[in-house]
Amino acid sequence: MAGHVENVDSATAWGGGRSPFNVTYGKMMMWFFLVSDALTFGGFLVALGFAKASAESWPLAEDVFFHFPLTHANWPLIYVALMTFILIVSSVTMVLAVEAGHRMDQKGVQKWLGWTVVGGLVFLGSQAWEWATFIAGNENGMATLLNNPYNVMNPDDVRYTNFFFFVTGFHGFHVFTGVVINFLVFLKVKKGVYQARGHYEMVEKVGLYWHFVDLVWVFVFTFFYLV
Amino acid sequence: MENRDDLLVNDSYAPMVNHSEEEGKAIRKKIWKVTALLSILTTLEIIMGIYLSSRSSDLWVVVKWSFIIMTLVKAFYIVMEFMHLGHENKSLRRYIIIPYLIFIAYMIYLIVMEGFKVGNGYS
């Protein structure tokens, strides 16, 4: 997190024996992976844009996502907003874990990484409820890959339900793998592996992945629920 | 010997990234500032999403573009501060961001334009 970028002339930087980008192999590969994954998600969201631009009608989010657990209230978007906040907060606890790692504060890393795992699990639970509610549908039937009860004008166009399952499902799977990886790193932090190594770069690397998951959700939230 | 992926200079890790207690304080302050910004933007998006839907608002184009701009601002802060790219080596930063933006901007232009065309042509 600190801003110590060592300044070296380009002959030294590119002369071999060191990383010209001043970054370790592991972190560089994580960035490569994230760029390719971002292109995948970009492809999905652009395809969603194509579907919306070419569709005759498209359901409004406030007509679909207005349920809230344990109530019968009509609260459009409030539950999705809650999910968004949970993911942003877990991203913040992750940065705090990385920051604690830079101070070699094992207890701090453990605490913040633990909260990050909890945040991820709460998000996954919320998404399970969201999916169940979405699939339950309305008076026009259940929402499946072959049935779209939300588009009253054009019920044969099932692209709305297809994109919902595909985009939020693919993102949810990323959240799931992120939680698993965060938990494994949490166990290693607890064992003191990184304390012995002298730095917590592994926390930074899984942190990059976790922030990426949050970044994707920011776009999914805008393009699926708002625009 | 353990297989390591954290080597930086001549097969040794330079732990330049570690920082002191005081630096940590300044960084945490920055983190809370970014958190506040992200929360404010998200709250604003939700309020606008609830009260200014495409059905009720005459200014839907403005609302839609302000959603997109707010999203891009949020993405900028997540990538630059939370993912720390803003504090990495300049060449690394450029070579991650610029190719991605070129590809994605071109793809959005091509495919969304095609979407409007298909919709107008066949529906």
User: What is the radius of gyration of chain B?
Assistant: 21 Å
| Low-confidence segments of chain B | none
Largest sheet of chain A: none
Secondary-structure element pattern of chain B, one letter each: HHH
Q: How helix-rich are the residues of chain B, as a percent range?
A: over 70%
Biggest chain pair interface: A-B, 74 and 66 residues
**How many strands appear in the DSSP assignment of chain B?**
0
Kindly state the mean pLDDT of chain B as a whole number?
A: 85
Q: How many structural domains are formed by the residues of chain A?
A: 1
Structural class of chain A: mainly alpha
Q: Write down the overall geometry of chain B.
A: flat
Number of helical stretches of at least 4 residues of chain A? 8
What's the alpha carbon Rg of chain A, rounded to whole Å? 21 Å
How many angstroms separate the termini of chain B? 65 Å
Q: What count of domains describes the coordinates of chain B?
A: 2
CATH architectural group of chain A: Up-down Bundle
CATH topology assignment of chain A: Four Helix Bundle (Hemerythrin (Met), subunit A)
CA-based shape of chain A = elongated
Question: Could you explain the architecture of this structure?
Answer:
The complex is a heterodimer of chains A (227) and B (123). The two termini of chain A are 34 Å apart. Chain A has a single domain (27-226), classed as Cytochrome c oxidase, subunit III, four-helix bundle (Four Helix Bundle (Hemerythrin (Met), subunit A), Up-down Bundle). With 227 residues, chain A is an all-alpha fold. In chain A, helix 2 (25-54) runs antiparallel to helix 6 (159-191), helix 4 (78-102) runs antiparallel to helix 5 and helix 5 packs antiparallel against helix 6 (159-191). The mean pLDDT of chain A is 90. Chain A has helices at residues 10-13, 25-54, 61-64, 78-102, 106-136, 159-191, 193-197, 201-226. Chain A is 70% helix and 0% strand. Chain A is elongated, with a radius of gyration of 21 Å. Chain A has 8 helices and no strands. The model of chain B has no long low-confidence stretch (mean pLDDT 85). Chain B has helices spanning 21-51, 60-82, 90-122. In chain B, helix 1 (21-51) packs antiparallel against helix 2 (60-82). The termini of chain B are far apart. Chain B has 3 helices and no strands. Helix content of chain B is 71%, strand content 0%. Chain B has 2 domains: 21-75, no CATH class; 88-123. Chain B has 123 residues and is mainly alpha-helical. Chains A and B meet through helix 2, helix 4 and helix 8 of A and helix 1, helix 2 and helix 3 of B.
